[in-house]
Amino acid sequence: MKKILAILSLLVACTCANAMDIDPFKGPKPVAVLIQTNPWLMVIGSDTPMVTVYDDGQVIILKKEKDKRPTFLQKQISLDELKKIKKKLSAFGDYSKLKRYYDLAPHVTDQPETKIYLNLDGKTFVTFVYALMVSDTKFPAYTTFGRKHKPDELPKTIKDLHAYLTSLDFADAKPWKPPYVEVMIWGYDYAPDESIHWPKDWPSLESPNTLKRGDSYSIFLPGKELPKLHDFLKTQKEKGAVEIGGKKWAVSFRYTFPSEPMWFKEFRDDSEKEKPNKPDTGDGK
Q: Could you tell me how far CA 61 lies from the centroid of its own chain?
């Protein structure tokens, strides 16, 4: 299956969504968001949060259990419980004194990156920590090179914040289904296997609820179509494409989250200014 090699600009999709007939990102505002990126995703940059806490008390967490498929769970907590969580988040330290970017493995490529967004009492805090990940993280490969640069020291404030957010759990949380699913497609003209055909009752490339981004598209389906989408993609051959509008496409999908344009904008704004580039050594040294 062909991958998108360029980083997907989700901010573009989030911004352009205002022109659609639907609002796939409608909902409460985020208080806390933690994303652990996957450098091996089919569409780089399409990561979804492991934890999201909203200002109406809605909490969405990614639950991982051994030998089971990760699932999103939702819990609606009371405003008093939300107040306690916000108090706990504020108690970890002075976020204004922290850097925007930390690198815990400057000599290693292809590591996950943790992105954290906080909005506490109108004050926004954003940080990126390269190579900070939950303990059960698995990834296929990485490359090491030189040891000229020393790893950053992770502040206790971020360490405690990360531990707290990734440990949030609720015994009575229920499975969460997103209001919309973003189906991301990009050209796969040379697919050697037979294509499967996009259902006629789903939005087309010309649909008002389809976003064009360069040569790729995002098609938004109602969350209730998720089981049908799973069943449809199961019929796709390993080297086959999905035919939409008479053309062959590679396909991946992600859940949309309420108000995600807010954190995508903060993650994007000036984020590259402090990030050192990882050298492309090509020799594994």
A: 13
Compute the distance between CA of residue 160 and CA of residue 151 in angstroms, rounded to an integer. 19
Other beta carbons within 10 Å of 155: 18
Q: In the 8-state DSSP scheme, what is residue 108? A: B
Contact between residue 219 and residue 17 where contact means Cβ atoms under 8 Å apart: no
What pTM value is reported for the model?
0.88
Of the candidates 85, 98, 154, 163, the one whose C-alpha atom is nearest the C-alpha of residue 127 is 98
The mean of the pLDDT values for the chain is 89
Type and span of the H or E element at 262: helix 260-268
The contacts of residue 223 (CB under 8 Å, 6+ apart) are 177, 178, 179, 180, 181, 255
Per 3-state DSSP, the chain is made up of helix, strand and coil in percentages (nearest 5) of 20, 30, 50
Per the CB < 8 A criterion, the answer to whether 271 and 9 are in contact is no
The Cα–Cα gap between 32 and 52 comes to 6
- Give the pLDDT confidence score for residue 220 in this predicted structure: 97
Q: Extract long-range pairs of 62-71: CB within 8 Å, 24+ residues apart.
A: 63/169, 63/173, 64/136, 71/175
CA distances from 8 to 13, 192, 210 (A): 9, 25, 16
Q: Where are the domains of the chain?
A: 28-175+258-273, 180-255
CA angle 130, 14, 90 (to 5 degrees): 50
Position 254 pLDDT exceeds 90:
yes
**Which residues contact residue 279 at a Cβ distance below 8 angstroms, ignoring those fewer than 6 apart?**
145
Q: Is the pLDDT of residue 7 over 60?
A: no
> What are the helix and strand counts (H, E) for the chain?
5, 14
- Those residues with Cβ within 8 angstroms of residue 163's Cβ, 6 or more apart along the chain or in another chain: none
